[in-house]
Structure formats: structure tokens, C-alpha cells
Design goal:
The structure is a homodimer. Chain A is built from nine helices and no strands. Chain A is an all-alpha fold. Chain A has two domains: 1-48, Arc Repressor Mutant, subunit A (Orthogonal Bundle), CATH 1.10.10; 51-185, Tetracycline Repressor, domain 2. The longest helix of chain A is centred in the last third of the chain and has 23 residues, at 118-140.
């Protein structure tokens, strides 16, 4: 990754952390991160207290792109059912890219195995917002049990992206019928 | 972990690799594994070509316990629907244990991010056998699309164990209705 000189050291470190942990996992070394960012270790420690903090900040910074890449625009006039299905169509689309490794916010929590890690906490919150989106749409769409439906959709989201990320399933013809069945059972027309 | 002297060095290494990678991830060092097993590094390299091979062998060895902990006994007289639900009741039960970190065969693939790694290949095969079990039961139970149902159940299995493993969901009141809905939609009575 060639450092882009129009970005600040901080931005380059955030970008390197996001890219390299996604490709190689949270075990990636500080040397590799600094090298990819074109930033000295000394500068890194002036900008971030620790690698843990850098990782948490990189996940935080990516969260708006994560949301924009999945969620429909607010008030786009579509039904709650269509708005929920939009999220899963995006997952299927993203999973088709050769570099897809599943949802980074799930992977980082599985890899860190520590719910109190600052990066796990950011990831937990970002995914909680996705569940909250499902719940809001479930209520709007008159689901019989919005909490249950939101948990089911979160489960399908994580299962689908994890399985696509490890190459266990390509998701084709899988997500739309699965989500459709769950929406039907919840009475969401 | 105190080495149990009635086990061979090989068995102690397999046990340490399974336990420590589950707790701490695949990044666990060879020194830590050898220390926990009470085996010298030299002995380890006489028994296993590499840490990768040790990890793969530990996953292979655990696979019979994985299957026994999830699958119903062959020919137990229950219906295919009940036999499928049994697997998910076991997941819910296992997820209640404080040390539960999700399915080790999913986690290791997410962590390694390398489908050609010997441990990923073992994990891929073990999970493939679970999908094959679902498919066999789906056919036995007259599911309208056994392949689809097997993929859906695998997706629910991975989503549920992953979310429970990271503390995003406790699975209570979630899996049975979700699986039940999918079985109903597939026409499995």
C-alpha cells in the first residue's frame, strides 16, 4: 500500500489498520502497520496510545462507510420490508468481491475474544446499531414480534457474511428466500 | 493447564492447542503451547512438522467430540425435524457455558483468513459434514428444497454460535422459532 501523501499520518494509520487487520487479522504487527502507513513508530505513539486504540479508532472511522454500504437512505419511500431486504442484497453484492472476508465488525470480535477490548466495544456498538435499524423497520412494518425479528435478521446477517467470508457459501439464492421467510412469518407484508 | 502425565506428549500438545487456540486465538505462540503441554519445543517438532500441522491435528482430533456434542444418535427413532432441532438445542445449551466462544471450526477459519491453511481445510470439512447431516435429514423429512434448507440451517448455526460467542445474543427464545419457521417453510412436518 503506497502511502498517499495528501492524507495526514493519522489518516494513513487508520487506513492501514483497517485494511491490514481485515486482510490479515488483529495480530498484525505495529511495524507492518507503520510501514504500510509510511509513519514512524514514534509518530504512531504520538497519535495513538496503543495499537488497541489505533484498531478501535480505525473501526470507528470505517463505521460510516459500513452503514452507507448497507442501509437504505432515510425516508426513501420504500416499505420496511423492502428496506430490510436492501441490506441483504448489499451483503450478497459485497460478498461477491474477491477480497471479501465477511463483516469486519464480527471478525474483530471473534479474533480478539475479549469483550472489554476497545475495538470489540466499537464493533459491538456498530452491530448493535444494525440490529436497532432492523427493529425500527420491524415496528414500522407491523411485525408481530419486532425484537425477535431484529435478532433473527442480525443472526442471518452474521451467519451469511461469515460463511461467505470463509468461502463456505456464495450466498446465491440463499439470503433473499431466508429473509423473506422470516419476514413472512413475522407478518411483514 | 497442568499436564496430565497419563497422556502422551502428542495428546497433551493436541489438547493444549485445542484449548489455547479456542481461548486466545490462532496467534498463540509455540512457546505457550509447549509450556501448557509440558513438552519441549524440540519434542514438539519431532511430533509435528509445524504449528500449522499441530493446529490442524488438534481440530481433527476434536471433530468427533464436536459431532457427538451436536448430532443425535443414528437411528434414534425421532423424526428428521426433531433430529435437526436437537442440533440447535445443543447449540443453545453449549452457548450458556461461560467459556463459550462460538464454534471453533468457524472461528479458526475467520482468524486464519487462508482457505489453503491445513487447519482451515480441516475446519471446512468438519462444517461440511454438518451441512451434509442437515441435507440428509431434509431429504428424509421431505423438504421441498433440501439443498436450500441445509444451507439455511448451516447459516443459522454459524450466525447463532458466532453471536453467542461474542456476547451479542444469548440465543434464548431465538433459535427454536427461527429454525421452526425455516422447517415449516420447507414443508417439513
Amino acid at each position: 500500500m503506497a502511502p498517499e501523501t495528501n492524507l495526514s499520518s493519522r489518516e494513513r494509520l487508520l487506513e492501514a489498520a483497517a485494511t491490514l487487520t481485515y486482510q490479515d487479522g488483529v495480530g498484525i504487527g505495529i511495524e507492518a502497520l507503520c510501514k504500510a502507513a509510511g509513519v514512524s513508530k514514534r509518530s504512531m505513539y504520538q497519535l495513538f496510545e496503543s495499537k488497541d486504540e489505533l484498531l478501535a479508532a480505525s473501526l470507528e472511522q470505517r463505521s460510516s462507510a459500513f452503514v452507507a454500504g448497507l442501509l437504505p437512505a432515510a425516508g426513501d419511500g420504500r416499505s420496511p420490508r423492502e428496506r430490510i431486504l436492501h441490506v441483504f442484497q448489499q451483503v450478497e453484492l459485497q460478498a461477491g468481491a474477491p477480497e471479501f472476508q465477511g463483516c469486519r465488525y464480527l471478525a474483530v470480535q471473534i479474533e480478539l475474544k475479549d469483550q472489554s477490548h476497545p475495538a470489540s466495544q466499537v464493533a459491538h456498538r456498530v452491530k448493535g446499531n444494525l440490529t436497532a435499524f432492523f427493529r425500527t423497520e420491524a415496528i414500522q412494518g407491523g411485525a408481530s414480534d419486532p425484537d425477535l425479528l431484529a435478532r433473527q435478521l442480525s443472526l442471518v446477517f452474521d451467519g451469511a457474511s461469515a460463511r461467505a467470508g470463509i468461502g463456505a457459501d456464495n450466498l446465491t439464492g440463499l439470503i433473499t428466500p431466508t429473509v423473506g421467510t422470516l419476514l413472512d412469518a413475522a407478518g411483514m407484508s
